[in-house]
Every structure is written in structure tokens, then in C-alpha cells.
Amino acid sequence: MLLLSSLSFAQTSSKSDLAVKEFTFITMEIPPFMSEAMPEQGAATYAIREIFKKLGYDFKVRFVPIMRTRTVGFDPTVTGFFPSFKDDDFLRGMVLSKTVYDTPWVIVERIDKPIQWEKPEDLAKYKGGNVNGYTIRSLLKTVHNQKKLNLEAAPDDALNILKLAKKRVDYIFIDAGVFKFLSAADPRVKEVAAQLRINPKIVMMNHYGVAFKTDPASQKLMAEFNNNVSASEFNMLVEKYFREKLK
């Protein structure tokens, strides 16, 4: 679920000539990257806002439940959605920007019951947990579509972790950075974190970007975004956020 890469601006770039200087993107609660309750609405939101601010735009964010993000394309007041990735089923009717952030998608397991797997079919003998709305994709997509994965849904990452600790599931899928953050910052997760660990075999690398609608104005904005973004700058902004905003 979720988060993004770096953005850098050319020294000679000029502010956009697009008429609309304010626009709105949809996102969802995945702390620490996007969260309505966190300073600047999370690290990824902060990084993207800073990038667009340099281009002369006022970047607005609307938080919705995960499943509602699939309706972004039908909302005329919205320019796009973030974060997204190449085979994200949230991308219907939108186009993905260049990658701005790479992060591992992993399995978290209980230390007393490690998950032994080499290929997706090996997970069939276990009961897994996944946040409702998170896309099952890449190498897992085929076995999931064949209903060979036994998955129980959770409303968010923290509750998914707690279900694992309570032995309701054998493993969970989660972004590695989100797991590390919640283990340190969420009191409920912190209490059980010593019982859990990231499985050594990474499921996949998520390559995140921003999804834009296909109308001419949104596509012009995406072109400007792509021309002024780099993973290194985005990561610098995310690191700055953690250093200065979460003291």
C-alpha cells in the first residue's frame, strides 16, 4: 500500500503557465507516508506538496477510505491519486507518473512460527492477512486469482499486525517502512513488535508514483511533474520530514 520516490527541480525550471494553480489529489491513510492526523498530512504528502509549491501550485489532499480511491476517475473535482504503481488496480482511467519512491513489500511473521516459502504456491498452507483494498499483484496475482491464498482482511496496517501477534493469521503483507514506523510509533504495535519480524524473502519492490487523470490539463500537469522530479530529491524531502516534523 502503499510509497514514493524523490523529486528534484532543475535550476532553470520556470513556474507553470497552467491557468489553475490549485488542484486536489485523493489519498488514503497509510502512516507515516499519508495521514490526516500527522504533521503536513504525512511524509509523502509533504514531499509532493513541496515539489508542487516550487512550481507555483497549491497542492490539496482529500483522504478517503481505501476502497473509495477506485472511484477517483469519476470525480470531476480531483486531478489524480497517490501513491500508485504500474499494475495498481486503482489506476483505472489514469496514467502513472515516473517513479518517485521504491520500497519493499514484505511478509511479516511471528518469530516463533517463521514462514517457509520460495514460490507463491508455498503460501497456500498458511493463513495470511492483508489490508482490505491493498492490491494482490505481481508474482502473487496468479495464485490469488486461483483462490489458492487463504487471506483474511483487516481495516488497516496496525490492526493487521495485531491480528498476527494474536495468532489469528500466520503472516501478513505490508510495506517494510510502514511496519518499522508502526513498531516504533503505535503503542499497540510497539507492545507486540518484539514477537514479530520481517521474513528474509522480499515479496516484491514497489515502485511508487502519482496517478494523473487523462484530460489535457491533468496530463500537462503530469508532464511538468515528470520534468521536475527525481527520486533523490523526493527521498531528501521525506528524510527532512522525519528529521524536522516528527521530533
Structure characterization notes:
This protein is an alpha/beta fold and 247 residues long. It folds into 2 domains: 117 residues, D-Maltodextrin-Binding Protein, domain 2; 103 residues, D-Maltodextrin-Binding Protein, domain 2 (3-Layer(aba) Sandwich), CATH 3.40.190.10. It contains 7 helices and 10 strands. Helix 1 links the parallel strand 1 and strand 2. The longest helix is centred in the last third of the chain and has 14 residues. The two termini are 25 Å apart.
Average residue pLDDT = 88
Main CATH class of the largest domain: Alpha Beta
Query: How much helical structure, as a percent, in the residues?
Result: 25-40%
Number of domains: 2
> Please, what is the CATH homologous superfamily of the largest domain?
Periplasmic binding protein-like II
* Number of helices in the DSSP assignment: 7
Low-confidence stretches: 1-17
Oligomer: single chain
Return the CATH architecture of the largest domain.
3-Layer(aba) Sandwich
| CATH level 3 topology of the largest domain | D-Maltodextrin-Binding Protein, domain 2
Q: Which band does the percent of strand residues land in?
A: 15-25%
